[in-house]
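note to self — DONT lose this again. spent like an hour looking for the file last time. sequence + predicted structure for the chain T wanted, 102 res
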Amino acid sequence: MSHRGSLLCLPSGMHGWAPTSAAEVTLETLAPALAVADEIDVLLIGLGADIAALPREIREAFRARQVIIEAIATGGAVRTYNVLLGEGRAVGAALVAVERAR
């Protein structure tokens, strides 16, 4: 499978995702992940080439649903997602597309 652009990787499958930058990662754009919070333990958020702080409302919304969120660069998020998925962990990922991952 090949895809251009940002992705949401959820238990239901891989879905195109609108954000193109860390600034566009909001509680609204993460609503599909929050909707399946009962099916995941960890949500990795790839914020592009760099990392940035997530708004408090995002952290609190996922904490209330007992989901650990980790916001890191997209390359690291992809690698960590693959490892956790390979271990059979309940993991999801929200990945802002990058030209070249490190």
